[in-house]
Amino acid sequence: MRILFVSLSEKSHLYCMAPLAWALGAAGHEVRVASTPLLTETVTRAGLTAVPVGHDHGIYQDMTSYRDSQDYETANWSRTGPDEITWDELRLRYELSVPYGFATYNDSMIDDLAAFAQSWKPDLVIRDPLAYAGAIAARTCGAAHARLLWCTDVWGRSRRTYRELMAQVPEEQRSDPLTEWLTARAEPFGVTCDEELLNGQFTLDSLPPSLRLPSDLHEVSMRYVPYNGPAVVWDWLREAPKRPRVCLTLGSSNTEGYGGDYVSVPDILDALSDLDVEVVAALVPAQRERIGAVPDNARAVDSVALNTLLPSCSAVIHHGGYGSYSTALAYGVPQLILSTSISDHELRGRSLQDAGAGIFAHHREADAEQVRGHVQRLVGESGYGEAAERLRAEAAAMPSPQALVPVLERLATER
What we know:
44% of the residues lie in helices and 14% in strands.
């Protein structure tokens, strides 16, 4: 088969796709990964074949200018049920997210991507849940079409709620910004916008089932296999830590896209400086350059992939990104999530806390003393580790990307 992956131009989203793309390629299928040119180097460094389409967007400039936007209520998609959100609130989310998010990421890709799909003729398109350009491309060539999630499926659940609430308001008051935008972009290709275009024919979900939202969509479970970019097992990682090891990682998205992180690395290191733990601040170079001396019980390092570090850790502090979250799940590590409200971060954080495997705190509500206390609990109370181990076992029982290959072959053929 020919399989086309379509990603937004975000490294972390591509990292979620790479293990499945490798498995499909190893099984003898032809695999291509399409995104804007901004992602080309990330794709090729992962050993995959890139298809640059469209042009790069200016969304990062907007993010830097509006850093508080991550905490706007309209950016928080964690409330998804009809008992949690009103029609007016959800409509406003779509009214703002479509032009300032979805369209910004997708519009430039659509024409080039559709042309590539019509010429290359993939049998299966696997797309980022917000890469609607991939859905249009799949329709133009008759390919089967799936979403691969990097999040809780707040997009599918919100869409279901939106339709339920819209049916309850007078017809003259109804509007559907998502459908209106995609209809206008899809019509030139003879494609109709419907619910299957928005949600795919099936959805690949790497969250353990107990952490998912209820769904009436066709879900296919796939174990999360950590890929955090190029990885090296440094000499200090080859020895077991003498004290409980705590990883501090804030990812790269906020530093690269929003002009800086939302919590202070020096403040956290200082708050933990008198605890009987070894703190490893796993940073990108730009973050490393911004901090000075570190306490005696800490080290600040860059170029360390989480899948090489977290197996030796007793706890991890992070910003709520899906890669950090899922890598910690895969290794059974209790988590302290200090996050903004963007996307599904609050929902995932609170679900983990409800499962007993971590603690969630909004970054504005977590001062140094609170962080210190949270870390003491995660390291000192056995319940967190036991709950994290239960989630690890649940995740490990899901089919690997390799095991999923024949399933995808069958689903693509049926479609």
